Task: inverse folding
């Protein structure tokens, strides 16, 4: 059982986080990206923490952001007062995140008494992330069953036909090829992050969730280009 020792107490870590957790539900990704919760996930990159330590780190991270903003000293002070959180609030946030299986109780902090013995009576819970890296790679929903997707096809087809001087495409054909490309790219995302989870968790450890969204978008674009020849002939059949 891993231990992290500090003067006056000993942290007993009983939970090992995954390298990468792929989220199927976009609502979970939105929670991680929520301004209330994101500092918790950022703070816990350093390892499991007690509510007290996490509250201190949470406020520190938010204050550092405000200091970088182009605000007057008074505006910064007002903003800091607005976003500062107390332990009771952080504890509430942690409970909500535990219910979503994004945060777990990762162990105990046990105090060392004046004789140098561990005392369980004053043990505090340590909270940690379930994974080093969280990713939303797209759900497994059927695009053809999403109303907005269906309604986008005629507009998309018209734009492509005008920009490439092509006849207007078959909507059924265009829908089919888009779904095929989406599914292939979705599977490629999953394969790469599952196969190389430890390496990608390490290289992404300091990246914000906004940056990771851009990483996924860029990866899709580049993989689509690399696979273009596979789709080109089939796509052109839609515009005859």
Result:
């Amino acid at each position: 059982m891993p231990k992290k020792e500090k003067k006056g107490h000993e942290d007993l870590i009983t939970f090992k986080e995954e390298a990468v957790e792929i989220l199927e539900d976009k609502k979970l990704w939105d929670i991680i990206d929520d301004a209330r919760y994101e500092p918790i996930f950022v703070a816990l990159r350093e390892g499991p923490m007690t509510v007290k330590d996490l509250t201190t780190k949470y406020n520190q991270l938010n204050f550092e952001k405000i200091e970088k903003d182009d605000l007057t000293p008074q505006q910064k002070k007002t903003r800091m007062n607005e976003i500062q959180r107390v332990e009771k609030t952080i504890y509430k946030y942690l409970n909500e995140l535990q219910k979503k299986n994004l945060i777990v109780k990762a162990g105990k902090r046990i105090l060392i008494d004046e004789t140098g013995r561990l005392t369980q009576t004053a043990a505090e819970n340590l909270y940690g992330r379930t994974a080093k890296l969280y990713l939303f790679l797209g759900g497994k929903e059927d695009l053809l069953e999403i109303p907005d997707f269906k309604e986008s096809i005629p507009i998309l087809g018209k734009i492509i036909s005008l920009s490439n001087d092509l006849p207007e495409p078959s909507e059924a054909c265009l829908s089919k090829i888009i779904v095929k490309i989406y599914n292939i790219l979705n599977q490629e995302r999953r394969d790469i992050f599952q196969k190389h989870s430890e390496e990608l968790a390490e290289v992404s450890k300091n990246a914000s969730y906004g940056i990771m969204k851009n990483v996924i978008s860029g990866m899709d674009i580049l993989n689509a280009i690399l696979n273009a020849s596979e789709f080109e002939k089939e796509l052109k059949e839609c515009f005859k």
